[in-house]
Amino acid sequence: MIKSKLEQVGIFNDNLNKVKPSPIHSFDEKVSDIPNILKLTIGEPDFSVPQHIKDAALAAISADDSHYSVSAGKKTLRQAASDFLNDRYGLDYDPAEEIITTVGATEGLYTLLAAILNPDDKILIPTPAYPVYAEMTRINGGHPVFIDVSEDKFVLTPDHLREIIATEDHIKAIIITNPSNPTGVTYTAEQLKDLADVVRETNILIISDEIYSELSYDAPHVSMASILPEQTIVINGVSKSHAMTGYRIGILAGPAALMKKINMVHGFVIMTPSNPAMAAATEAFKSAESKDDTLWMKEQYKKRRDYLVEKMTKLGFEMATPSGAFYMFAKIPVDLNQNDVEFAYDLVDRQQLAVVPGSGFGPGGAGYVRISYAASLDMLETAMNRLESYCEEKRTVKIL
Ligand SMILES: Cc1ncc(COP(=O)(O)O)c(C=O)c1O
């Protein structure tokens, strides 16, 4: 192991002093080596990438598609992404100037924040939220402002937003996750319109993270960009819709003038995305076959969701209806330990079942656990049997 004095002499960016590791990954790593552990922790589709999509990546490799592309990504991919956004959500983006191909939604988010944040700038984050938002904001010198929406069925209301806008200065943007990680809640067109009416009166940018847009179970997905395109940048990609997390292809779509600057930052950060991955994502976005692949996956997730809602409700857990993504954010029943971190570790100790403590997702998350149902029905059945045994044991112990 090489020892370096540099860590001690302040070599790092001071912003890092405020940054914490991802609570999801920290918890997952801590429990991963426990024998017989069953993990419903990470949001990772358990399906294989469809063969025709793999074939597209292989064809690019065989054709020696091995040189730098352009930073915004190949034209064919941007055209396919533009058509996809138009076909599914009625959005209208010029592939030449309004779409950038990113290294997963993650790099898109990072690049976007790096491009817009000045010191003192604030990013509004309705919570419970995907923890990455706050940490990326801090790395880039900004300040996250959390808006606890747990009292409003996990949906940001226009009144709540108005209240925050009236009290905070230097607000640069708000991040709306629709469908939501960790709650699985989705926004209706009406709810989005009401929020857009508030934002329209301001100079605030809406960062609309729609990476789970294809996994909306109870109603068609509505994109914020169909309502307020001039103040919205959409984040999307193929990671969740096509089970392609490891290919690392995402997209940013927004007004040309904004995308130009963002693309400049993006080019310095990544140069260009990977060609075989772009070939695969092009196939995923454009082929009719891949629309069916996603519909099939969505059907499987829906069955799992329905199964979990029924079982967990019987065990006394309450949750906002998880109508999208593949997460359930469940309130720990009052007769069990209300400290979500202790609860989660105790569940691991006694039943080797891992679910993520809700407090890691920010204000409003304490007392909840997040369960990912990107796992087979067999796994979910075993998980529910373990959870049932845990509840029985704990409840018996309490009565005695
Ligand atoms: C809300 C949200 N946004 C973005 C991402 C990252 O997506 P990608 O794998 O495309 O970087 C995730 C992954 O879990 C997520 O839950």
Task: List the SSEs and their pairings.
Elements: H1 23-31, E1 38-39, H2 51-62, H3 75-89, E2 99-102, H4 104-116, E3 122-127, H5 132-139, E4 143-148, H6 158-167, E5 171-177, H7 189-200, E6 205-209, E7 232-237, E8 250-253, H8 256-270, H9 275-286, H10 288-314, E9 318-319, E10 327-331, H11 340-351, E11 353-354, E12 356-357, E13 368-372, H12 377-399
Parallel strand pairs: 1-11, 3-4, 3-5, 5-6, 6-7
Antiparallel strand pairs: 2-8, 7-8, 9-10, 10-13, 12-13
Helix pairs in contact: 2-9, 3-9, 4-8, 9-10
Bound molecules: pyridoxal-5'-phosphate.
The assigned CATH architecture of the largest domain is 3-Layer(aba) Sandwich
Could you say which overall geometry the principal axes of the C-alpha atoms support?
globular
Please give the CATH class of the largest domain: Alpha Beta
**How much is the average pLDDT?**
96
- Based on DSSP secondary structure assignment, what is the total number of beta strands? 13
- CATH superfamily placement of the largest domain: Type I PLP-dependent aspartate aminotransferase-like (Major domain)
Described by strand count, sense and barrel closure, the largest sheet is:
7 strands, mixed
Radius of gyration: 21 Å
Number of helices: 12
Structural class: alpha/beta
Keywords: Aminotransferase, Pyridoxal phosphate, Transferase
Protein name: Aminotransferase
Enzyme class: transferase
GO molecular function: pyridoxal phosphate binding; transaminase activity
